[in-house]
Amino acid sequence: MTDAMPVGDRKPLPPPVDETGVVGWARKNLFSSWGNGITTIVLIAAVVWILNWFLEWALFTANFTATTGSECRGGGACWALIREKFRYIFFGSFPYQQHWRPLFAVITMLAMLVLSADRRMWNWRLLVIWGVGSFITFLLMFGQIHIPLSLILFVALAGGVIGLTLRSALAPSSERMAYYALIGIGVVGLALRIAGVLPKWSIAIAPLSYVETSLWGGLPVTLILATYGLAFAFPYGILLALGRRSNLPLIKGLCVGFIELIRGVPLISLLIMASVMLPLFLPSGTTIDKFLRAQVAVILFAGAYIAEVIRGGLQSLPKGQFEAADAMGLNYPQKTLLIILPQALRVVIPPLINTFIGFFKDTSLVLIIGIFDFLNTANQALVDPNWAGFPGEVYLFAAFVYFIFCFSMSRYSKYLEFELNKGTRR
Amino acid sequence: MAVESLGSAPRVKVAPWNDPVIRGWVFQIVVVGLVGFLAWYLVSNTIDNLQRQKIASGFHYLEREAGFEIGDTMIEYSPASTYARAIWVGILNTLRVAVLGILLSTLLGTIIGVGRLSPNWLLSRICSWYVEAFRNVPLLLWLFLFYKLISEAFPGPRQAISLLWSSVFLSNRGVYFPVPMADPIHKWMGVALLVGILGAWMLARWGKKRQEATGQPFPTVSASLGVIIGLPAIVWLAGGAPHHMSWPELKGFNFAGGTVIQPEFTALLVGLVLYTSAFVAEIVRSGILALHKGQSEAAAALGLSRSQAMRLVLLPQALRVIVPPMTSQYLNITKNSSLAIAIGYPDLVASVNVTINQTGQAIENILIIMAAYLSVSLSISAFMNWYNKRIALRER
Amino acid sequence: MAATARDLSKAESVIQLKGVNKWYGQFHVLTDINLDVKEGEKIVICGPSGSGKSTLIRCINRLEEHQRGDIVVHGVTLSNDVKNIEAIRREVGMVFQSFNLFPHLTILDNLTLAPIWVKKMPKKEAEEIAMSLLTRVRIPEQALKYPGQLSGGQQQRVAIARALCMRPKIMLFDEPTSALDPEMVKEVLDVMIELAREGMTMLCVTHEMGFARAVADRVIFMDRGEIVEQNEPEEFFANPRNDRTKLFLGQILHNH
């Protein structure tokens, strides 16, 4: 080492030319050795060959304008088929004139999901967003919503109980009185309703024509099944996870048994069960909507998987957190709601999003019990004898739509993981 | 101090409603009671409904004639066989696709996962495109796509694409390829293979012992391979080296001779393998990334060769990270093979579904499905747990 | 022994341990512990690791259950009774070795959590108390930050303030300075010394012998689950009687 020159006097030398710029980059990343260089050349050749073939098929010789399948034949891709069928693929058998309704329902649900992705909304706002969003979505899809009196009373009761448990320590006495009033109204009202004193009455909101679920199809069905599957499975997954970590043997046993049972069998078997066994479970004479059956199966399925994800979060908390909460004199619900869950859930948000991506893809299985989700409507578009013989085009198109949804969600999950880590570290 | 006092709590009077033990039991009894009530309600409704609809119950139907055709069977089966046999055919088909799927997707996934970490920029990009493309699209869609491509884009048997000097044919009826003519020696070759595997295992143990005792390394891998391949080969030669093959030939509208892989099976296997290997690749990649760089440097500094470092230092650690998520991928393959029903491959769920439709006995059949998948799932988990424990122990 | 114990002989006992025993499986962690703590007394507990000193103070607020003997805190005998445990935890504050602040809450929320939820104190009042305590531990300006943004010494001072927020009568310290970098130990000890001078009853597991000399009324040496020796600090350090104590003090004073 010739370190005689004082450090301050030395000018920094630029690195050798072949270490920087395009040439340097390529040398380092593509041609660092003989084997590497050969790999690169072979790969470039393969990519060029495939791209050439694909572009030829999908673009240069493709037919965008044909009006029948036979016009399309012989050339490249028949994108005219998508042009012809895309409204069916997106909205299924929903009355054609009314397609704006599922369209806006999809937009509402997307807005709901996008707003929920914003961390500033992770508080009471989330409840409002989901309440309003769900109301709009189902009003658009059904056209008419009947809210029975008993449901209103039940919501009043639940709202009172939740408000009281969450806010009892913080709320001024007037607010607390309001919760007591809500509970009172709920309990008395429900009792009277069950006793038959109050009539079977409901609020009807009916601005649009009624469309039954058997006509629903396409993207809104996929979105509803996945989104509400998650929304309902989430609280019950939390309960299952807490139960599995409980030291009460019976509770633990029940939760472990349920989770392992559901996770041990394929979703298809649950769907078949929901479609053939659910009607047997209910008192004879009651019929249950097929769409609802599928939704129930998805919720049961999702809950078990979400429970395992949340359990991971619970396990990642250091023991000191539980001890500190105990030493402060917090009781179990307080400890769980104020200390444990907020931290555990924060840890598991990225894996939860990945789980959600899984459900979003798995909802495609409902086509086996005859629900017209997005994949099923794409499938049905192929059945038309006029347009037979172009499966590649339709499936590629459907794959593209699924890809956009799943890929953007997985990117969001990566981003969030990064952001959350930044917050907890210094 | 005497141990008999273990666990005896201080005797102080506690009001029952303030005792956490009593509170816990009351809570548990209430919850179990509610669950029990729900179960009773559902079961009583079900019994009621079954009687009303005059649906038989019990597993007697399994003895009856199934009466439906199954396209792809590994064991003898005809419509005259029983339902039990039909379901057994389905179970075997599920296992066949699951086992092959697990092997192939582990292989492909490992290659792609390692490829993603390649210093070659282009290779790592291509591998990551692969992963993103396959895991962000539903498996069912891939299955439909592959199935439709095989059954619609491939030519009929008469125009079949021939590969490898007209020994393998691709057509919309499946892939046809030659197999050796049946010969009694094959059975003995199988026995020799098993003996070879056992011998290789014993050889490896002996080699390890000798190395521990004398320090002499033993070329375990090549010796084991030699035994495993060599023994059956010797038996084959001893049996007169029968080399007659059954070649697929076009007879009329279809091929005769050779053997065929049905398009349904091909589509299912290809779809499962391509889809799952995207997940496997991610697991392998994160397993390798989880290794601390210091580990390979420390191994190198000790003078271990690259392959020794890999075998003795890096792989054991990477496996510890890889095995648990890999287990759940293997379980996923098994469960996802049930998507077969959508493209008409006769797996367990498909056979049972036909049985449900014919007999109306949903409950018994769904119990069969659940029992079958649960036992497969539990045995895979048990095996992987055992394996995980073994490699976890080795690290201490 | 209780010669210089100021007016402690007349003070009331606030914690009494009589024949306390505890096992982890077959391992006997606490053997026949007898201890009587007077109001306002400051006790330092030291001993080699694994001697049961942390377990002892964790039994006092029932983070650990003892299996035999009696523990009486403020006249309440510890048992499975949930109400008693809640009552005792309200009276007894605890500071942990690893701080155990709640990372998802701001410093202020960490402090006000227990007063609001356990004592049902109005939020405003709780925040006022919290701010005055933060001023006392000299970090009021950090109130709206999150624990992750503070240094270890600051976090431990927050943890002390958090325990004080419940206006406890007794404070337990479980090696409060062991997880800190040397330059931060002093800021935490200063706060503890100040607290001691104000007359708080304190039980402190620590190896900070300077602290013991400065404030302790009694130093207890534990080994293998037993109280081997206890004495007032000057006597304890000058004339340890037991061989195990001598050995331990020899090691610990050499290292410092």
Largest sheet of chain B: 4 strands, antiparallel
% residues in beta strands of chain C: 15-25%
Largest interface: A-B, 55 and 55 residues
Averaged pLDDT of chain B: 81
What's the average pLDDT of chain C? 87
- Under CATH, the topology of the domain at 83-139 and 270-391 in chain B can be stated as MetI-like fold
Task: Give the % helix of chain C.
Answer: 25-40%
Could you characterize what this model shows?
- The complex is a heterotrimer of chains A (426), B (396) and C (256).
- Chain A is mainly α.
- Chain A contains 17 helices and two strands.
- Chain A has a two-stranded antiparallel sheet with strand order 1-2.
- The longest helix of chain A is centred in the C-terminal third of the chain and has 34 residues, at 391-424.
- Residues 1-5 of chain A have low confidence and may be disordered.
- With 396 residues, chain B is of the alpha+beta class.
- Among the domains of chain B are: 2-52; 83-139 and 270-391, Orthogonal Bundle (MetI-like fold).
- The longest helix of chain B has 34 residues, at 20-53.
- With 256 residues, chain C is an alpha/beta fold.
- Chain C is 38% helix and 25% strand.
- Chain C contains nine helices and ten strands.
- Chain C has helices spanning 53-60, 82-91, 107-117, 123-136, 152-164, 182-197, 209-215, 233-238, 243-255, and strands spanning 13-24, 27-38, 42-46, 68-73, 76-77, 92-95, 170-174, 201-205, 218-223, 226-231.
- In chain C, the strands form two sheets. In chain C, strands 6-7-8-3-9-10 form a six-stranded mixed β-sheet, with helices on both faces. A four-stranded antiparallel β-sheet of chain C has the order 2-1-4-5, with helices on one face.
- In chain C, helix 6 links the parallel strand 7 (170-174) and strand 8.
- The chains are: A mainly alpha (426), B alpha+beta (396), C alpha/beta (256).
- Chains in contact: A-B, A-C, B-C.
